[in-house]
Amino acid sequence: MSLYTLENPVFVTYAIAAALMVLKIMGQGWVTVYRMIKVKGGYASPEDLRPGRINTDPDPTQLEPNDYVDRSRRMHRNDLENIPGFLAAGFLFVAASPPLLLAQILMYGFVAARALHAWAYGTAKSHETRANFYTLGSLIVIFMALYVLAAILFF
Hints:
The protein is mainly α. Helix content is about 70%, strand content about 0%. Helix 1 runs antiparallel to helix 2. The chain starts with 8 loop residues before the first helix and ends with a helix.
């Protein structure tokens, strides 16, 4: 059996988790756009003040920081900093042929950690709350990478 087919349950686990994380990254970008449109502000670049269908009446104050928009933008940046590591480590992890239960715990655990991190960030919970979920996801990715190295170097 090839490792990277839908016949391999470890790869299926990875494919589900990876697809959810790709949707999280892309979805957060759309949330940011929605928030900018909703408040008609929080724009990031001077060219955003050019009149268009969405911004029919531009105003220089639209470039001022807006926490409602910037919070979503920070969440998006955080996803872009963390999810690619999972995508790479998870793909390599599949090649190491881990036990299915371990793969499910780690991969779905990462998805849950990112979902809880998004909840904590989106609802302005304390940094410590966010950090707990970040730490869980980070340790999962580190473990998967170390597992791959161990499989290569020691087995």
